[in-house]
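Researcher: Batch entry, complex prediction.
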Amino acid sequence: MDADAEAARQFIEAAAPDYISLIDRDHRVAGLYNMVNVPQAVWIGESGQIVRPPEVAGTYDTVRSRDKVTREVPTEVQARRDEARIVYQDAIRDWVKHGAESKHVFSPAEAKARLTVPDDNVATAHANFRLGQFLMRQGKPDAAEPLFIEARRLHPESWTIWRETEEKNDAGLAAGPTFWARIDALGEKKFYDTVDMAGMPG
Amino acid sequence: MVWLLTDSGERQMPDAVAGDGGLWLSPEDMTAATGWELKPEGLCLGDICVPSAPGGFVRDGKIDAAAFWRHMGWPVASSDDGGAWLLGEGAEARRSSLESLTAPDFTLPDLGGVQHALSGQRGKKVFLATWASW
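Model: Structure tokens for the complex:
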């Protein structure tokens, strides 16, 4: 999900993956699947059925444990993040091998119970965001700005909309003081929800 | 000149008239952009027809596409100058699509501009993962 494909290019070219990498300038996938952050992932079976609905793709809520000054993550939290990644990657391998028999594949009822679906505000937020991105491509940032403000207002849970439309630092990251203020404002809420999977660190 | 964005693309609408929150299209433009057709019984798509009340979204042979979209409860966005509009898919359609558990289809380009449809991967497992540079 990058409004600017060139921002993604260096990462994709460095990784040179043998899978397909798509550029989603307007966050269409986030709109269709009701995603709010990256990385999120969906498991889709051979017949096009969702067998695991959108979830955090095997990472861990390290962001809120970062030291406010050094931005370093405590060692024990890093260890949980690394473990979460391994558990998730092993689960994908298990699914590839065992298909529908994998213990990580949800039944339709279980998958439905874990779905989050968009309401009218979320759908309208994505409409404003997409039109704003269109105007940015037309070289009209001033016309886009009110649409982005409206998108953020209507869908405050979306980190993808917020970070894409926020000012980036020299490293291309929306990780300035406003980002950290927003993290602090989460209160008890998580930046990354825990993945609902056997063996996942809580 | 008005730009109109829908799920089927981005179009320039030379004959559209925007103002007072409305986006007035000819019936031909309405059909071309959205698929909805003006018939004696109202605006129709397939078996569905939505009648327009007097003074409603049909007036003098023109259609206020924005008023119709709002009437249906679907998202409308527009630039302050009325030069760019978006008629989006409603939350209800997105909810029922997800709840069917059939993965919503989409087509997106890779870095080289080659388009790929999710439905083109049928017969394989798909791990659909998102990521961003920011």
